[in-house]
């Protein structure tokens, strides 16, 4: 089950108990069923366990699906060392290992906030600070919290653990409510750190994590359009709802092209049969309202395009193949739509290096405010989209680069100390508002000029 779930449900397998329980249960097996063996056999078992643990450093990398079958190496290796029970071994029964083992669970608990701090603030060479800091905090926690006893020999924290747990839970709930209330009521204060998926309601409050795959924005507006695409259309949600100018019926499916013939094949665990059906029928959304102008906004990614073929192999997938598929499929979709106006939104100038973490520092002077290095082949793709649009009288290409970039394609990534981008491909809520405002102006101009 562990191996199966790791490949098909990687996030759930990593965080949830069903796929991780065996790692803890094997420790119980070592305790309940100890081995009785000669010293010679114990030594062999111990060295076999050490070999398996050390081999993990060479077999496991950041790209390894986890836990997966390779988790057997460190887990089984640890099990073998425990059951060998060699109290005379200088390898495992020494001063250093003795105290590290005693403090180990405290170290484990403390290393998480230490790791997050270093990652969040991008502290250079944090590993050399984080490891000894985790050990120090683990020692202090073990000595003054876990092992501390009063004059009667009672550990205060153990005696009052239920009360303290309820106090911590209560304070956490209060803090969560205060944070949630602040974010929803003052989105302008933190919109540089929120993804553009979120949207505002009629009162100006932000609605978090509630974007559906079929949404009508600003239903009171006289200007009505349809919008379809993937998550790179969804990141305009905040900008569309904040403006309130255009009524947009939005339909999207993650990592999906709205093509008629070339359908994206599933390449991730979350791409189930429902996703496959929705993706393959996404283009039919244009039939929902006849004669209504259409906005098409996608990531236009190379990987997604490669996955429109038999498999997702990108080894034999070159730029010419990408251009040919994109041009053929967009022309087919344009023909299917008919003569109504189509607004083709290009790729956003997503920077190669995100500034989100950098802008969370107290000192942001070293954070880049502009760049000419982007993820993917964005300049070429936008040129191709513009070429396709020019071949059709009813298709208007809108280039997001024009909003925040100069003529040399040097683009702003931060404006007024706010991030335009949430990650390496999606706009922040602030960026959504900035870029959508200009896209909207061009759409309204073209709609008003229609005879």
List keywords for this structure.
18 helices, alpha/beta, elongated, 451 residues, two-stranded antiparallel sheet, single chain, 6-stranded mixed sheet
Quick summary:
By secondary structure, the chain is an alpha/beta fold.
- Report the portion of residues in β strands: 5-15%
> What integer is the average pLDDT?
88
Described by the principal axes of the CA atoms, the overall outline is: elongated
Give the C-alpha Rg: 28 Å
Helix content: 40-55%
Distance between the termini: 63 Å
Strand order of the largest sheet: 3-5-4-6-7-9
Topology as H/E string?
Answer: HHHHHHHHHHEEEEHHEHEHHEEHEHEEEH
Described by its quaternary structure, the protein is: single chain
Unreliable sequence segments? none
Major sheet characteristics: 6 strands, mixed
Number of helices: 18
Can you walk me through this structure?
- The chain is α/β, with parallel strands linked by helices.
- Helices cover 49% and strands 9% of the residues.
- It has 18 helices and 12 strands.
- It has helices spanning 2-8, 10-15, 21-32, 39-59, 72-84, 95-120, 126-146, 156-159, 161-185, 187-190, 231-234, 237-243, 273-280, 302-306, 319-337, 378-390, 401-404, 429-448, and strands at residues 199-200, 206-207, 214-217, 224-229, 247-252, 294-297, 342-345, 370-371, 395-398, 411-412, 414-415, 418-419.
- The protein has a 6-stranded mixed sheet.
- A hairpin with a 5-residue loop joins β1 and β2.
- α6 packs across α7 (126-146).
- The longest helix has 26 residues, at 95-120.
- It is elongated and about 90 Å long.
């Amino acid at each position: 089950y562990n191996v199966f779930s790791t490949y098909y449900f990687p996030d759930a397998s990593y965080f949830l108990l069903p796929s991780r329980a065996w790692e803890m249960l094997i420790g119980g097996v070592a305790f309940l069923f100890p081995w009785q063996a000669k010293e010679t056999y114990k030594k062999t078992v111990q060295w076999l366990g050490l070999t398996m643990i050390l081999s993990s450093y060479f077999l496991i990398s950041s790209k390894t699906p986890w836990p997966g079958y390779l988790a057997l190496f460190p887990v089984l290796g640890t099990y073998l060392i425990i059951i060998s029970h060699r109290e005379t071994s200088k390898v495992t029964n020494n001063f250093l290992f003795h105290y590290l083992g005693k403090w180990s669970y405290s170290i484990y608990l403390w290393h998480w906030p230490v790791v997050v701090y270093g990652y969040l603030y991008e502290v250079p060479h944090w590993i050399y600070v984080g490891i000894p800091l985790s050990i120090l905090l683990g020692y202090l926690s073990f000595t003054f919290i876990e092992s501390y006893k009063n004059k009667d020999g009672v550990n205060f924290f153990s005696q009052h653990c239920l009360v303290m747990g309820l106090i911590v839970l209560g304070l956490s709930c209060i803090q969560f409510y205060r944070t949630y209330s602040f974010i929803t009521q003052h989105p302008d204060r933190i919109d540089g750190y929120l993804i553009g998926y979120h949207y505002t309601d009629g009162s100006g409050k932000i609605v978090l994590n509630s974007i559906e795959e079929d949404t009508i924005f600003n239903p009171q507006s006289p200007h009505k359009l349809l919008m379809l695409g993937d998550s790179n259309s969804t990141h305009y949600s905040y900008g569309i709802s904040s403006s309130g100018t255009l009524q947009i019926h939005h339909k999207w499916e993650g990592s999906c092209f709205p093509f008629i013939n070339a359908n994206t094949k599933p390449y991730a665990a979350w791409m189930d049969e429902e996703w496959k059906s929705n993706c393959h029928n996404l283009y039919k959304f244009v039939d929902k309202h006849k004669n209504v102008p259409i906005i098409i906004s996608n990531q236009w990614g190379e990987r997604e395009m490669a996955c429109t073929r038999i498999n997702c192999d990108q080894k034999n997938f070159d730029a010419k193949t990408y251009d040919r598929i994109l041009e053929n499929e967009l022309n087919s979709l344009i023909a299917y739509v008919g003569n109504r106006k189509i607004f083709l939104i290009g790729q956003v100038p997503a920077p190669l290096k995100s500034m989100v973490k950098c802008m969370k520092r107290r000192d942001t002077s070293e954070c880049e405010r502009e760049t000419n290095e982007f993820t993917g082949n964005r300049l070429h793709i936008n040129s191709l989209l513009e070429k396709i649009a020019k071949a059709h009288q009813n298709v208007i290409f809108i280039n997001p680069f024009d909003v925040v970039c100069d003529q040399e394609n040097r683009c702003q990534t931060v404006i007024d100390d706010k991030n335009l981008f949430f990650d390496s491909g999606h706009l922040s809520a602030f960026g959504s508002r900035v870029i959508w405002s200009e896209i909207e102006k061009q759409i309204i101009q073209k709609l008003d000029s229609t005879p």
